[in-house]
Amino acid sequence: MRSILTIILNDLNIFFAQRGNLVGLLVIPVLLTLVVGWSIGQIGGGGPTRLRVDLIDHDQTELSAKLIEELRAANDALVLCPLDNDADDFCRLGEEHLQLERAVERARSGSTSALIVIPAGYAAALEGFERINIDYYSLSDPLQPSPVLQSLNAVLQRAGSASITTGVAGALLDNVTAAIDLPPLDKETRDGFLRSIYLRSQEMLTEQPAPVRFRVADAASDGEDGSLNGFNQSGPGMGSLYVMFTVLGGMAVLLRERRQWTLQRLMALPLSRAQILAAKIGVYFTLGMIQYFIVFAVGAAAGMDFGSDPPALLAVMAAFVLCITALTFALAPWMKSEGQARGLVLLLSLSLAPLGGAWWPLEIVPEFMRTLGRLSPVAWAMNAFQDLIWYNGGFGDVLPEIGVLLAASAVLFIFGIRSFKYE
Amino acid sequence: MQTMVETRNLRKTYSRADGSTIEAVKGVDLEIRQGEIFSLLGPNGAGKTTTISMISGLVTPTEGDATIGGFSITTQSMEAKRLMGFVPQEIALYPELSARQNLAFFGRMYGLGGKTLSRRVDELLDFVDLADRQKDRIDTFSGGMKRRVNLAAGLLNSPPLIYMDEPTVGIDPQSRRRILDTVKTLRDEQGMTVLYTTHLMEEAEELSDRVGIMDHGEIIAMGTQDELTQQVGEEDRLEITTGAQNVGEALIERMQQEIAGVTRVLYNPPEQIGDNGSESTPARLTVFAKRGRTALPQIIQTLDAAGIDIQSVEVLEPDLEAVFLALTGRALRD
Ligand SMILES: Nc1ncnc2c1ncn2[C@@H]1O[C@H](COP(=O)(O)OP(=O)(O)O)[C@@H](O)[C@H]1O
Ligand SMILES: [Mg+2]
User: Fold this and answer.
1) Contact at 8 Å (CB) between A290 and A243?
2) Domain B3-229 belongs to what architecture?
3) Residue B289 and residue B233: Cα distance in Å, rounded?
4) Is A159's pLDDT higher than 90?
């Protein structure tokens, strides 16, 4: 074990003794993180373009359905879970049914933007012109404009106005029938009449142009917050891109060590082949982690968020670095020359990064690109970083991504270790 | 004397990218005794590096095994490797690190640390006379200085046995002299066993207690220098350069049969040298003869009569070059 550490330290020492490496490790990633983060902040992207909102409807009536319909229309960025979940499980529900308790926990931890609970008796209360509470849970500051809350309020206001109209109409109807001495209407006719007034008035209210149309981007672009979100994209994105550059660069270094015979000299030392391999893997894993830390440190200085679960963040970083290290060792035996290796480093980094959403969020690319992106380990890492940083998720939320990255690492390591060229 | 290194039927077959295979070493049996300098002498591509790589645990033999101080290099490689130092043909050092950093790293890998390590590094820097340049990066060193650090790196664990694979390649005569003297010092003052490979006859002659001559992956002769030169008998070797572009088989035949003492005649055609073949070496006739000086007049006469012009003649006592020539029909340097 001591020998392994000695080799790792020596290789790091050599890495840092090369000026060119410092530029690649430090200067360029730092500049890119700042420039990309700032630009994304300026164009207002970077934040999530869809908001995850849990919605539990205990009422299950025509009117509650109408309310939900309205909510969708008011803000198309809202994804109501579980109703509007997509094939990708944007809602992150898994197999489980969404229970109130779990939904409250999700809202409290920030993994959803909000939870809306429509209570049983909602329709009855509206029709009876009674007061009823719609429960709204969210982490966001109630004093800050939240797009979800605003949409909900707008919709409820409309429902409220419609119900006032109905209430007035009902009272009017009763008074009129009494005043002109008509036979009292049977209950069914009366209810039908009032419902049609309710629906009609709500329709009319909806058709009026909404005074404000709430978009997520509006919330993200006001002042400082916007650029913060930019770094939430550029930090993990540029970090992952440069982890690839640095770690995959190991392919060329391994060839160089064989060419300059330092690898062979190690093999003539009383060391097992496994120790040498472990040390080399350790070197690139360590460099990858250092790369992430550098970029994240810059991100932190620029105001990037790190979510609320540092161990989970660390686990995602480690899983991604391990996966790229494994890829390095799986490809290295096939490299014929250092030039070829360096070419492949560029090709892989520059294709896997945008494919996986390192430069811009995958939400803004077409569906087929998103599907294709699954092939890139970057996509899995970025997805996990989003969960942690944008949605305040925890370990549980990123376990699937970590699992995929670790499984890929295992497969790649099997290839790499079996075909590692000692001779 | 005790045996330090013994190989049995060592073989290595490499497969090339195109699927063909090459037998780099074809069943080598060696015995290197404690305290001697043993040279493996052979032209480039003979299989010297491959042999040394197998007995240092760097390359797994396709067949056969070697023991170092009684430990098998394939099944007890840790024990075997602790007994050896290794000076590869390449400068196996980290160019970005200083001489001292390089030595300290390899020393640490042998388990040295603290005072012991820094004392050993100091000793070796003094030994190769580079104490004043120890803080400089290897990539600022001259070829000769790199070679000396390369050598020092093989001595860190004070091993009883050291392998040196062509340690004088590509350096100036002064640095070569230094290295050769160092090798002798290791044997004479520290009692080390040295396995030394070279393609230069002079080096093998100067250093070796015993020599193994290697060609095409095989040891074609082995023994002390006297034993080897006796193999070619008491024959002198006459090197004749000529301007003739060709010497007929018939003439060679006739010389072998008609001139008293001549046993063998070899013809080496002219060779193109220089970057674009602008220059060429003259054609050479090598004549093996008992009492070479006595046979010389008749040889010259015969060549004259055949219209072969003679540019120079040299009469050489039996040496390793002659042994190689006699065994392979080629000069070592070819
Ligand atoms: N790794 C290898 N792969 C394929 N062929 C090799 C390899 N190493 C050496 N050879 C071949 O084996 C033969 C012996 O090489 P080597 O042991 O380096 O000879 P020497 O050290 O005597 O010059 C050469 O023909 C060389 O081309
Ligand atoms: Mg060689």
Assistant:
1) no
2) 3-Layer(aba) Sandwich (3.40)
3) 10
4) no
For strand A78-81 and strand A51-57, is the pairing parallel, antiparallel, or unpaired? parallel
For the stretch A21-67, pLDDT in tens is: 888 888 888 888 888 888 777 765 545 567 888 989 999 988 888 88
* Percentages of chain A per state (helix, strand, coil), in multiples of 5: 70, 5, 25
Q: Residue A216 — pLDDT band, cuts 50, 70, 90? A: very low
Taking CB atoms and an 8 Å limit, are B81 and A6 in contact across chains? no
SS3 A86: coil
In whole angstroms, give the CA distance from residue A406 to residue A326: 10
Ligand 1 atom nearest B40 alpha carbon: 22
3 state SS of B98 = strand
Q: Prior bond to B159 cis, omega within 30?
A: no
Question: What is the torsional sign of CA B223, B229, B231, B237?
Answer: positive
Whole-prediction pTM: 0.74
Contact B182, B203 (CB under 8 A): no
**Cβ(B194)–Cβ(B160) under 8 Å?**
no
Q: What single DSSP character describes residue A26?
A: I
Q: Kindly report, residue by residue over A346-357, the tens digit of the pLDDT.
A: 999 999 999 998
Q: Which of A142, A87, A152 is nearest to A117 (CA)?
A: A152
Interface test with A, best of B12, B60, B106, B158 (most A CBs within 10 A): B106
Contacts of B149 in chain A (CB under 8 A): none
CB A334 within 8 A of CB A70: no
What superfamily would CATH give domain B234-317? ACT domain (3.30.70.260)
Residue A423 placed within a domain: no
Domain that includes residue A106, residue range: 51-216
Statement: residue A364 has pLDDT above 90: no
Please report the DSSP string for B238-264 in residue order: EEEEE--S---HHHHHHHHHHSTTEEE
Residues A290 and A375 in one domain: yes
Phi-psi region of A392 (alpha: psi -120 to 50; beta: other; left: phi over 0): left
Between CA B28 and CA A383 the distance in angstroms is 59
Atom 21 of ligand 1: nearest residue by CA position: B49
ipTM field: 0.82
